[in-house]
Queue: 3 jobs
Job 1
Amino acid sequence: MTTAPAYRGRLAPSPTGYLHLGHARTFWIAARRARAAGGALVLRNDDLDAQRYRLDYAQAMLEDLRWLGLAWDEGPDIGGPFAPYNQSERLAAYRAALERLHGARLIYPCTRSRRDLIEAASAPHEGGGDDEPVYPAAFRPDPGAPLPPLGDALGVNWRLRVRDGEVLEFVDTRLGPQRAVAGRDLGDFPVWRKDGCPSYQLACAVDDAAMGITEVVRGEDLVRSTFRQLLILRALGERAPAYHHCPLMADAAGRRLAKRHDALSLRVLRARGESPESIRAAWEAL
Ligand code: GLU
């Protein structure tokens, strides 16, 4: 008999701005689900984006989450069995995954620019909620074409090839059954960027597997990313976690909260004298 692994959840903030109420609510839901399951909560610092990452944001992020009353069992500040918890220190694991995808001939180098993709995607290409145009089939190399080696200086983007027409499915623990068709709802997507960095999709899938995460709790803007991450996990032979996508928070005008909404950042609310209890109280009923 196999027993289900003990619950392991995670918070995965990106230090690219101050956390706002929308992030905080999602993290709070993640923490509550981990607690309810008697499981562990991991804090992973998604600091791969060297252009937007700032050390002071990384510090502020941990401080703001603690102020709000969240606690985690493993993380960059306290260590743990799956350290390091800063993505910027985990490049070797991402590179190893890339090599496996390359060895399985599931990826190919792509020199097209973002503009090429947008121009080529003249048809209604997106089902919404995702800014990644479906990669045009005409841009793909022939599957039988020789695959260039990865090399040290990668210099180009590498994409994972999806199987056109394949129906992808998972059951979200909040939204229920989710379905997408490869080649229609999502196309070949980047796993490695020409600046030498893994894509969010690759790094996230590799870390969720390596850290033994059993449920990923995050905003519902990432449902389509989940399909991509499931494809990576399958290609790497890794067990997929469960997914729980939370509703996104909007401002008074109905616009989705973003890091530019400084007025709703935890910092500003705190400076205005709001208490963590009053912020959390609004979510208790969720
Ligand atoms: N760092 C990513 C973000 O903040 C993580 C998303 C996720 O939870 O996978 O959007």
Job 2
Amino acid sequence: MKICVTGGMGYIGSHTCVELIKNNHVPVIIDNLSNSNKEVLNRIETITGYRPKFYKLDLIKEERLDKIFKKEKFDAVIHFAGLKAVGESVKKPKLYYGNNIGISVILLKVMRRNGVKNIIFSSSATVYGVPTHVPLVETDPIGEATNPYGQTKIEIEKMLMREHEIDPSFNIVLLRYFNPVGAHESGLMGEDPWGIPNNLMPYINQVAVGRRECLTIFGNDYPTHDGTGVRDYIHVVDLALGHVAALKPIQEKQGLKIYNLGTGKGTSVLDLVKAYDEANNIQIKYQIGPRRAGDVAENYADATLAKNELGWEAKFNIVEMCRDSYNWQKKNPNGYNVEPSEK
Ligand code: WQD
């Protein structure tokens, strides 16, 4: 299939492009490079031997987006593009609502106008809000997101569900990610956040290569086995393969489908640090700090539905995730080198 991959130069998008190419699909990337780097295109080509077509474009530019859709005649869209820093969204809610929801409205309009009725949406576990129980299943109610970033994911999910209600021939797959970590085995691609990492694994990586002094663990007084936050970490290549698998209900025109993409296992912060030390034979320096606002104690998936309906399940374990993460950072101590342009 010929697939429009919005945000395809990003961490998850680029890994997904590699797996799409390996499965004989044709990804075409649209990305404004606001939080990614053109170097990624060279890395995709080095890994796969194929250089995807790339359009540098902000999806808000409806006219130019429409021209691309008329020219490329896509079979489907995988929609990754959007701002995704939870902390930043709390400080700049209007930026997140305007951007994440605004570009999705434009994308949907252009898809409809060009008869493209297949979309896989990069959603998030944050749509469940503060979990009332774990593991979370797809039929659990959508909660009140604990931050504007999560709220934008809820609004976009609702918009897509309405689209399917109005026009049942629209095939929509909502993929709810838990915590993506790790990197391609080559070490050529990986997570390269701009500025101080919000997320745990990139922060640990930067401590490991000496870019950061010490990891602060946000609270060790949660009601978990060791007091630190428990999450469902999933290898980014497993996540990418989940997107390839999600093309099945699209090709079979199954309408609206929702899947959790996680391992079904919870790992605490201290567990992760220990696994990282063991996998890479190093000692990550850490200190215990206060809890971070908006954090929940535990959050992990029940991914049985994806296994039963997509034939997909996560294969990498936590030690392999830590090994591949460090391998990327060791080979690219300053990420893709160039800081993305100022917003
Ligand atoms: C994980 C654990 C922290 C940093 C977010 C988004 C979610 C998804 C994944 C996009 C928590 C602890 C973290 C640090 C720490 N993103 N931590 N020190 O918050 O579970 O999920 O990223 O889809 O939507 O909400 O991920 O990696 O920030 O935190 O102790 O320096 O690590 O308290 O327990 P989170 P995270």
Job 3
Amino acid sequence: MSKQRPIGIFDSGMGGLTVAHAVSHLLPEEQLIYFGDSAHLPYGDKSAATIQAYSIKICDILLQKGCKVILIACNSASAAAYELIKAYVGSKALVINVIDPVVQYVVAKYGQKRIGLIGTKQTVGSGVYEYQVKVQDSSIQIGSLATPLLVPMIEEGFHKNEISEAIIEKYLKNETLIDIEALILGCTHYPLIKPQVVKYYTQKTEVIDSSEIVASSLHQILEKNNLLAEKRIEPNQFLVSDITPSFEAATELFFGVRVPLTLHKLWE
Ligand code: DGL
């Protein structure tokens, strides 16, 4: 497999750009092809079967573009479709999700401890974090809470005011999340509210943002498979299945700089 092939990254919309940003920072020689399924967001409230159908369609596009890796930068799609995608993609590309690297991190650090998880209804309802952690270390307790108001709030850029702080606080006060040593931000949108979450816990609880953990795991996997690109030749591409000026504006929130989006429908 050629090292110079791009890395495909996908999410339901713009949230996965937090992961793409961490990857482009850590691995600047890699060409990224990002796909945001903006026509079908949010994924967090959809059934596993629907998320699987969208995910496979997106994988086809990324494979056609010759991606050497498909990074599922969405917890909901990682929870609902990872195994299916891996079977579908086979040996054509490596498939990485955003859950496994965080599970490794937690298992290495929080034996015998109680930790928390917030995410979409799909991610929390799937129980995948608890399952994966318990398989490796049954002494770790996880309290999970679905926090469905957070994604629309963040997508609207409505996350740095008293009302959003009150919503975040109301969720974090839930008894499921009492006495935790760490909180997993189990949705790729949530790095944007990390400062508010950190402020709530006043440093007593580690707030685990998966984007950097995932980027560093991707680095190790590329290195191990001798797939690290030597020099970037082509520019990054940002594809979306629906386009509006607000999607383009949102790229700045999630990626740090505004990036031009190209429309690529899932079904022509
Ligand atoms: N970014 C997605 C995730 O990580 C959530 C957004 C959505 O519900 O589509 O789960």
